[in-house]
Amino acid sequence: MIVIVDERELVTEGYSSLFDREGVATAGFAPGEFGEWVSSAADTDLRSVRAFLIGDCRDGAISPRQIRDRTGAPVIALSEQHSLEHTLRLFESGVDDVVRKPVHIREILARITAIRRRGSEEAAYTEVGSMRIFMDGRDPEIDGEPLPLPRRERRILEYLASNRGRRVTKTQVFNAIYGIFDEEVEENVVESHISKLRKKLREKLGHDPIDSKRFLGYRLVF
């Protein structure tokens, strides 16, 4: 999930729509709401956040260092001002990157992956046996051949790969894929997505690489 903060609801809704086309869940906040949420959100909710995008906010309304106190997820400023002084001021505030608008959603996703990779939180891809799982929206490869997947199934596989070695619950998968504030989708939809994903992987690999245990969740097996 990606969190977007901006004074203008039209902006947060616009970015949410664009990210949704890429199969990436989002949550939009006004600056005042965000400050209250990030200071009180449960650790499990914050672990679902892939990155924070900070748009147009009053000076001092958002503190990147406050975010850093709770999570190591990248903080990226979306800037509409093309001045060196403004860019330097944003970096001094503690953001990891400054992106000048307009910018394509896929560029933002690539920058997020690059920042996480530098922080050793996320590699460009994860290899599980003969399967290579990318973290930038590309379809996975099996024995070098792409395996086309619907965006939700691809994101679930990416999430499992980014948590390799750890078991994740159905709720954690749901929050990462649909966002923690999506009340229009039932959490049980995760089971349907994973069932379809397992079938496709089993057909290509000859075995099921996703281990599941009731009440405990899922993990990729090597």
UniProtKB/TrEMBL annotation:
GO MF terms held by the record: phosphorelay response regulator activity; transcription cis-regulatory region binding
Domain Response regulatory: 1-116
Origin species: Mesorhizobium plurifarium
BP terms from Gene Ontology: regulation of DNA-templated transcription
A GO cellular component annotation in the UniProt record: cytosol
Stored CDD domains: trans_reg_C
Residue ranges of domain OmpR/PhoB-type in the record: 123-222
Ribosomal protein as UniProt keyword: no
Name recorded for this polypeptide: Flagellar transcriptional regulator FtcR
